[in-house]
Specification:
alpha+beta; Heat Shock Protein 90; 3 domains
Length: about 600
């Protein structure tokens, strides 16, 4: 069936743009803070920031695990229409944020001296490192809060608010860093205080918006504590591992560089790390929507939309990362000079070459996270950010400092090869999976699923309805059911375009022969509007315009309308068997798909 692709492109484009803008506020704050510290403070002070930064990543790991775990799990439950379960996951996430923050801070305060030694502090800078670490741990809760707030606000369709909290965080952090360093002469300690205050205020604002304004994520006390906690932690482990591997990698490489090439090499590594953070603004922003969208589309078995999202991520990612790589290679002296460390230009140039391959690996990892292939996502994360990069760093450091910086490109290439090998092994267990992406195409292959988007044109709507009729006939549905579905879809599309000001709409139909049901979903990005409610309230003069919708309501086992991702979602579960008992909860039906 012809698909304009406009709906998926618009939805993905909105989410990616908001993600890039939001992450820009966060990462640019860290980069600009490092630039300010590098130009105002001495090389030794910049080294202190580099040594203590892994502690920030530790809190980031916990926050990312809970935020990404909550978002991915909620997306999956939304795709299965399990909305109460989604709210319980959301509520438990914030309980865990508080618990984890208190535990981490307590551990830092109790073991501050051995921690500073582990980080690589020397007798000359141990006092400054200790002050920086204690400041970070004191504001650890604020650092953690911003991650679940961002991920869930984006899912709730509040992309502008998600952007604002990161812009608030970044603006406050940068402004306070400058003030603390120039007016209060606080040194590296001031950089940590500024970062914590900015993150804390922004995270608190995002949390308050969710708890007071959201309809989809209203708090609901968890009833299955152990199961809910286990699900959040297991689903979010890729997010935690990403930051934990940052911690391990930076800790290992800092010590390796300091012992073999001196403290200036550690400062150079901080420069490449900041360049990497800048690139991650675009990489994470572009591929980030893959996780929630893969969760929803995967649960719905919407393979067509899922493939379209992957293509968009790859295409747009390459359009940004390839030019960025070329600019860094050509203008490496300028990039290194921004940090007041011109000696880093060779490292910047070599590091830039790893960015396109890093994009490919991130696409696979975020796809696997959303597809509930957590173990595979974790394996790739550990491979690219710990096993391969550390192994290559140790080997290349034996050749010399210039050779050392090639470890990042080598690690990315080896990770991509790891994904290919593991993907082939998994496909041997399930022949319905596509190569590398591992998308289950059984429903699509058997003709039990169709998905398409249409523009607001009479001809397009009529063709879509005709295509649905062919789909029903292919699956040998009764003429009554076939007519009801095709008429209802045509009428819903017409009233949606007339009343919601939508520029496109998406229709998905899944036939589940085992349960004798059809799962029909209609989505659009216009203003809030439910076509079913419109039909129910329509007067006698409009009866013919909504005849098909009323027909399908008589066959419906469940009808649900809500807004998620800033998109209107109407879901109708239709019985294809006369006398099928209606269920009170949609979960009982969807779970059996």
């Amino acid at each position: 069936m012809t698909d304009s692709g406009k709906f998926i492109g618009t939805l993905y484009g909105k989410m990616a743009l908001m993600s890039v803008l939001a992450l820009a506020g966060n990462f640019l704050a860290q980069i600009i803070g490092t630039i300010i510290a590098g130009n105002i403070l001495s090389d030794s002070a910049l080294t202190v920031v580099g040594i203590a930064t892994p502690v920030y990543y530790a809190y980031g790991a916990a926050g990312a695990m809970l935020g990404i775990g909550c978002a991915a799990l909620c997306a999956y439950h939304i795709g299965k229409s399990e909305f109460d379960t989604c709210r319980r996951v959301f509520s438990m996430t914030y309980i865990l944020v508080l618990v984890f923050a208190l535990l981490l801070s307590a551990l830092v305060f109790l073991f501050i001296d051995p921690l500073c030694t582990l980080l690589g502090a020397t007798s000359e800078n141990v006092g400054a490192v200790k002050s920086y670490v204690l400041a970070l741990s004191g504001g650890g809760l604020g650092v953690m809060l911003i991650f679940p707030a961002f991920n869930i606000l984006r899912m709730d369709g509040r992309g502008k608010t998600a952007v604002c909290i990161f812009l608030i965080s970044g603006t406050l952090s940068v402004a306070l860093t400058y003030i603390f360093l120039t007016h209060f002469m606080m040194g590296a300690y001031g950089v940590a205080i500024a970062l914590c205050i900015g993150s804390g205020i922004a995270g608190l604002i995002g949390t308050l918006v969710l708890f007071t304004k959201s309809e989809n994520f209203r708090p609901l006390w968890p009833d299955k504590w152990k199961e809910t906690i286990k699900s959040i932690l297991s689903t979010g482990t890729p997010g935690a591992l990403e930051y934990f591997c940052f911690f391990i990698c930076m800790l290992t490489l800092n010590n390796l560089l300091a012992s073999r090439f001196g403290t200036q090499a550690v400062a150079t590594y901080k420069v490449t790390d900041s360049i990497g953070a800048f690139a991650l603004i675009f990489i994470w922003g572009i591929v980030g929507p893959l996780t929630p969208l893969a969760g929803v589309f995967g649960a719905e078995r919407d393979t067509q939309s899922l493939r379209e999202v992957i293509k968009l991520a790859l295409r747009r990612g390459l359009l940004v990362i390839v030019p960025l790589t070329l600019l860094l290679v050509i203008f490496a002296p300028v990039a290194a000079g921004l940090f007041g460390l011109s000696e880093a230009q060779s490292a910047v140039r070599v590091y830039a070459l790893s960015l396109p391959v890093a994009l490919l690996n991130h696409i696979l990892i975020y796809l696997y996270m959303g597809s509930q292939r957590t173990l595979l996502a974790n394996t790739l994360l550990i491979s690219r950010m710990a096993i391969w990069v550390i192994t290559c760093a140790i080997l290349f450091s034996l050749i010399g400092e210039r050779a050392f910086w090639w470890c990042f490109l080598a690690a990315e290439i080896l990770t991509l090869l790891t994904a290919l090998l593991l993907g082939q092994a998994i496909r041997k267990l399930n022949i319905n999976l596509t190569p590398l992406l591992l998308i289950n195409i059984s429903a699509e292959r058997d003709g039990r699923y169709t998905s398409f988007s249409v523009d607001p044109a009479t001809e397009a709507v009529a063709k879509a309805a005709a295509g649905v009729t062919d789909f029903c006939e292919t699956n040998e549905l009764s003429p009554k059911v076939s007519m009801a579905i095709s008429l209802a879809i045509e009428e819903m599309l017409v009233v949606i375009f007339e009343n919601s000001q939508a520029t496109s709409a998406n229709v998905r139909v899944l036939y589940v022969p085992e349960n004798k049901i059809i799962v029909l979903r209609v989505r659009n990005g216009g203003k809030l509007f439910c076509p079913v409610s419109f039909a129910e309230k329509a007067g006698p003069e409009a009866a013919m315009e909504v005849m098909g919708i009323n027909m399908i309501l008589k066959l419906a086992l469940n009808v649900d309308y809500r807004s998620t991702f800033g998109v209107n979602n109407t879901t109708i579960i239709i019985s294809t068997k006369e006398g099928l008992k209606k269920e009170k909860h949609i979960e009982k039906i969807i779970d059996q798909e």
